[in-house]
Amino acid sequence: MGLFKKFVNQTRKPEGFLGRMMVNGMNSGHATMADWGMSYLECQAPVEVLEVGCGGGRNAGELLKKYPESNMTAIDYSEVSVEKAREYNKDYIKAGRCEVKRGDVSNLDLKKDFYDLATAFETIYFWPGLEKCFGQVAGVLKTGGQFMIVNESDGTDEVSKKYEKIIQGMTCHTVEEIEDALKKAGFTQVKTNHHKSKPWIAVIATK
Ligand SMILES: C[S@@+](CC[C@H](N)C(=O)[O-])C[C@H]1O[C@@H](n2cnc3c(N)ncnc32)[C@H](O)[C@@H]1O
Fold first, then answer.
1. Among 10, 40, 97, 195, whose CB has the most other CB atoms within 10 angstroms?
2. Cβ 182 vs Cβ 121: under 8 Å
3. Residues lining ligand 1, judged by CB closer than 6 Å?
4. Domain range holding 200?
5. Domain count, the chain
6. Hey, CA dihedral for 124, 39, 188, 69, is it positive or negative?
7. pLDDT profile of the chain (207 residues), mean per 10
8. Three-class secondary structure of residue 126 per DSSP
9. Whose CA is nearest to atom 10 of ligand 1?
């Protein structure tokens, strides 16, 4: 595998030196899109927030800024991501507002019916079975809790379809596939916001 392919394949599960480079890049590279997605969050003051597939932890930090009364649990199955997210959020961790730990969304080892808000930025492409993983998220959300998915691909754009071919285990889901899996996993009131000129989507579902 060439270096470029090796590098972009780090998006799925960052590991080693290339993985550390990738998580640094993701924090800055996804910021504009993540902030666009967060602008659709309508929750007033979630007490407990779960950030799934947190990568370098920048979005966990932004959510803690947006919700100054909230506590954050950020999880990722990559040790490199967890390490970077802990360093990025060290002040929030010291203040007792943030915990970053290893976890796989396909088998969440977290308190049931506990979180008010769960978020997933640029990560569901890699989840092994949308309905199953969305079901895991539903299980840890309180009734009435919200789940927001933000992707830079709506599953139809050429650029992402190109990456889908070179990144192992990546699937660019369409809005219909995501909405359908959310409903099958027990979510109601699923609403998708589409960016005016880019293939970005922010899907918000309520348990
Ligand atoms: C492209 S990165 C996005 C990181 C971050 N959310 C962002 O927007 O910058 C995808 C992240 O999802 C994580 N991930 C992928 N599959 C996962 C799973 N099954 N459980 C937990 N984390 C997962 C990867 O380890 C990686 O850190």
1. 10
2. no
3. 11, 13-14, 26, 30, 34, 53-55, 59, 76-78, 81, 104-106, 121-123, 126-127
4. 3-206
5. 1
6. positive
7. 84 91 92 97 91 98 97 98 98 98 98 98 97 98 97 95 92 97 96 97 97
8. helix
9. 123
